[in-house]
Amino acid sequence: MSKPSSFSLRGRKALVAIKDERDASIVRRQFERLGIEIVIWEPGASIDCRSDVTLIDDEFLPLTSPAQRTSLGRGPVIALLGTETPSRLKLVLDLDPASFLVKPLRSAGIYAALVLAFERSERTSELKQQVLKLEQRLRSRRVVLAAVLQVMHTHALAEPAAFALIRRAAMEQRKTIEELSAEITAKGSLPRATG
Predict the structure, then answer these.
(1) Which strands, in side-by-side order, build the sheet including 53-57?
(2) Per the CB 3.0–4.6 Å rule, which of 26, 28, 45, 99 could disulfide with 116?
(3) Which residues pair with 81 in a beta bridge?
């Protein structure tokens, strides 16, 4: 299944917490035009919906409940800024917003803020996955080093030759170097190729 385009917003759900009724009506009108379902949230109430994006007014900050902060962290957050004081900006930054809008709101800019928020969220998710994969590979480097040292010792090879032997055996067996290295360290020798 392919991921939805950041530019296509129809069918998405937004959790909205806006204090000023004028700003709220502008958001409602724009979201209706864009085909976004709106769930109104009053701070203090529990968040029991799974939204794709959250618009939160800076006047509702700080969020005191850890459950509220966790619920907002499921999707991108768009902060609505009314004042640019350092203390208010600090509260907004604690939400790690993907985008922002300046109050008083106008209809212009809402679509751009949504697209930027979804795109940033997707890119951040991809980067987190890459970091996890690299951290896993970094942890497995010890196993690879142990296997290289074992092959060097048992076959009287230099380090580059031992690594080349492991790499070639991994390709022949259609395994990653890390998987084969784990087998080498567990069995004490290079496993024989099957088939």
Answers:
(1) 37-40, 13-17, 53-57, 77-81, 99-102
(2) 99
(3) 102
How far is CA 42 from each of CA 57, 61, 63, rounded to the nearest angstrom?
Answer: 11, 12, 12
pTM above 0.90, yes or no: no
Tokens linked to 143: 């196993």
Phi, psi of 143 (to 5 degrees): -65, -40
Residues 3-22: pLDDT tens digits? 667 688 888 999 899 999 99
Report the distance separating Cα 32 and Cα 28, nearest Å: 6
The number of angstroms, rounded, from the C-alpha of 19 to the middle of its chain's C-alpha atoms is: 29
Structure tokens, 91: 């509260």
**CA dihedral defined by 121, 99, 109, 56, rounded to 10 degrees?**
110
Which residue type, as a one-letter code, is found at position 116? Answer: L
Q: What are phi and psi of 5, to 5 degrees?
A: -70, 145
